[in-house]
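Aim 2 progress update. The chain analyzed this quarter is reproduced below.
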Amino acid sequence: MLVLSRQRDESIFIGDNIKITVVDIRGDKVRLGIEAPTEIPVHRQEVYEAIQRENSRDRDAATLKTEAAAQ
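Predicted structure tokens:
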């Protein structure tokens, strides 16, 4: 993991087209602004994990349906 120090209004780039800017710092909370192409999904970790769980359930259900149809 790369760890960087940034102050408010400073940015980092990921590749050529993703820019992350420190917008605000209040106590132990940091607000980030993220500029990325629309085809690149950006989610908070808890939202990403929920999406992954839902996708896994969908794949499991599709597998069961396919196996049942094959019998």
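DSSP finds one helix and three strands in the chain. The chain has a mean pLDDT of 91. These observations will guide the mutagenesis experiments scheduled for the next reporting period.
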